[in-house]
């Protein structure tokens, strides 16, 4: 029986911290993030001297003889590895994903409906469960894209038609972008509110080839993973520990090109540096150091001069790195006239500024992959409104990343995960923000899931499988029991977070090549992995690029 609460306290605001009577006061970094006491912070520093070049998405304007010289001398081009950019959202505290956001079903896939009691545990009352027609029929939800039965497949992956994630994502997408997105959901149990969840796949993504023109990995937390959740210990590589990203000023301060561009305009500064290289190169031809490593020494010196010219050409314009591009000739990220973020929302919310900083670095190719941690998702506060508002903001941040990729014509894999999850006891929150859904009343690791979306310029990523039924098995990797809990025996990932990470990495690699090649490469890069002969069944999509972008 559904109970309607008649008296309630004021819902917590979007940025107010969460205090739970059944939780101790926060004492660790992770506690503070999960309960919203600690906002997103961070900064960025550059990589090695010879890697400070290049946005691979932009045309090179150096003189052709210098471009040829860089190749002949074996200088680092700084172009990255050309892999699909990867962004991970780490929603700290135990966010709801299954049911009320991304639909979860039984063995037949997302639309193989659970029991009414199962959906009730996932926060959906009987009149909002998939398969029940909405009042007014198809297209009557706020998104305007409902299938008429509380399902929405606008993004390929099926969401609940009133999903706060979905509403936020669609709010940021330009017309037509949704048609080039698809996704998959992975039902997978993980512990609640603990640092013992090695959820973060960043090091594995880097091992699979993700590399930026400035550095490999970034993250919005100062941790070994760059996020709130840990990285699997076996994957950690201290040499590429994620660099911390916070705000636009940290990104613009990442590269220092000296005073020459300040004294001259950018094109003149590049011309001066090119001339310096040519004069120095001519002198080098007269030098005989009579050392065995003579050629190596000369090439290192040449590379130093070439790098200076290349650096000025690529980063002499301060707008090249700046996520706050409102002063640029054609602002994309921040503008009241067609920008992804309006000036007011960008200036008024640090989560938007953090998202903009990470997405620009990753999608523009300065970093290979990045983690965006958002805190305050331990929202079992005895109402629904707090979680809905926070999910909506997270959806807007997700949508911003997808939209920025679309505006740059660059593919993107975006992964969303959390430590644990929540459940409802069926009590309804009929407030405006509660939207008539079940209140979140407690942590529940058995309702946890992760999901990813893939944007592919020009065409929607294609699910593996010759028939709709086969494709459904690849769009939902694993399944729920009818009572609304993860079937822990369904896949290796379902009851082992380390293997969930491996499953995500496998799917990232699968975007770059044919299945047989990917499986062989995965086995080589990750010896002793736990996926074994199940790799094909754990992979969602056909390749979207042939090796590199």
Would you kindly provide a written description of the structure presented here, covering whatever features stand out?
This protein is of the alpha/beta class. It folds into 2 domains: 49-78 and 255-317, no CATH class; 81-253 and 321-514. The chain is 30% helix and 12% strand. The chain contains 15 helices and 11 strands. The chain has helices spanning 29-34, 64-73, 116-121, 164-172, 202-207, 248-252, 260-263, 266-284, 294-315, 343-348, 350-363, 385-408, 468-475, 497-510, 515-525, and strands at residues 86-91, 151-155, 157-160, 181-187, 215-219, 243-244, 367-374, 412-417, 422-429, 437-443, 449-455. The strands form 3 sheets. A 7-stranded mixed sheet has the order 4-11-8-1-7-5-6, with helices on both faces. A two-stranded antiparallel sheet has the order 2-3. A two-stranded antiparallel ribbon has the order 9-10. A hairpin with a 7-residue loop joins strand 9 and strand 10. Helix 4 (164-172) packs parallel to helix 12 (385-408) and helix 8 (266-284) runs antiparallel to helix 9 (294-315). Mean pLDDT is 83; it is low at 40-60 and 259-266.
């Amino acid at each position: 029986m559904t109970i309607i609460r008649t008296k309630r306290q004021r819902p917590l605001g979007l940025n107010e911290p969460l205090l739970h009577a059944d939780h101790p006061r926060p004492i660790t970094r992770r506690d503070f993030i999960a309960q919203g006491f600690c906002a997103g912070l961070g900064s960025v520093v550059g990589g090695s001297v010879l890697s400070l070049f290049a946005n691979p998405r932009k045309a090179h304007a150096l003189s052709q003889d210098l471009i040829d010289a860089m190749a002949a001398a074996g200088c680092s081009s700084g172009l990255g590895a050309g892999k699909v950019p990867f962004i991970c959202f780490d929603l700290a505290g135990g966010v709801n994903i299954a049911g009320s956001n991304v639909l979860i079903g039984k063995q037949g896939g997302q639309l193989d409906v659970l029991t009414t009691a199962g959906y009730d545990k996932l926060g959906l009352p009987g009149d909002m469960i998939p398969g029940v027609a909405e009042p007014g029929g198809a297209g009557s939800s706020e998104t305007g894209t409902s299938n008429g039965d509380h399902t929405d497949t606008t993004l390929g992956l099926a969401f609940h038609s009133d999903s706060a994630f979905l509403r936020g994502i669609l709010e940021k997408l330009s017309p037509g972008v949704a048609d080039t997105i698809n996704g998959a959901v992975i039902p997978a149990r993980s512990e609640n509110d603990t640092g013992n969840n090695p959820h973060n796949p960043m090091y594995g993504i880097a091992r699979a080839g993700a590399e930026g023109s400035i550095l490999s990995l970034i993250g919005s937390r100062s941790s070994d993973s760059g996020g709130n959740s840990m990285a699997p210990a076996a994957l950690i590589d201290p040499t590429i520990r994620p660099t911390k990203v916070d705000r636009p000023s940290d990104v613009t301060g990442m590269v220092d090109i000296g005073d020459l561009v300040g004294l001259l305009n950018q094109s003149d500064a590049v011309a001066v540096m090119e001339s310096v290289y040519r004069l120095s190169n001519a002198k080098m031809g007269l030098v005989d150091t009579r050392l065995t490593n003579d050629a190596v020494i000369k090439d290192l010196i040449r590379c130093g001069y070439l790098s200076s010219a290349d650096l000025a050409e690529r980063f002499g314009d301060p707008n090249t790195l700046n996520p706050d591009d409102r002063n640029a000739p054609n602002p994309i990220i921040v503008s009241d006239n067609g920008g992804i973020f309006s000036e007011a929302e960008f200036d008024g919310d640090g989560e938007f500024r953090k998202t903009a900083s990470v997405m620009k670095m990753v999608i523009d190719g300065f970093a290979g992959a990045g983690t965006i941690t958002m805190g305050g998702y331990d929202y079992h506060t005895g109402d629904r409104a707090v979680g809905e508002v926070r999910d909506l903001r997270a959806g807007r941040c997700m949508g911003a990343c997808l939209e920025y990729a679309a505006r740059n014509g660059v593919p993107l894999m975006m992964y969303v995960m959390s430590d644990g999850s929540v459940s409802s006891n069926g009590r309804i929150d009929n407030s405006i923000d509660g939207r008539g859904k079940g209140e979140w009343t407690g942590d529940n690791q058995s309702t946890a899931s992760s999901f990813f979306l893939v944007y592919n310029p020009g065409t929607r990523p294609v699910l593996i499988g010759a028939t709709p039924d086969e494709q459904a098995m690849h769009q939902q990797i694993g399944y729920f029991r009818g009572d609304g809990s993860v079937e822990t025996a369904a896949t290796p990932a379902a009851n082992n977070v380390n293997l969930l990470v491996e499953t995500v990495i496998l799917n990232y690699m699968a975007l770059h090549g044919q299945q047989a090649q990917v499986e062989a490469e995965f086995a080589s890069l990750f010896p002793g992995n736990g996926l074994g002969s199940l790799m094909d069944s754990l992979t969602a999509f056909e390749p979207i690029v042939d090796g590199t972008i």
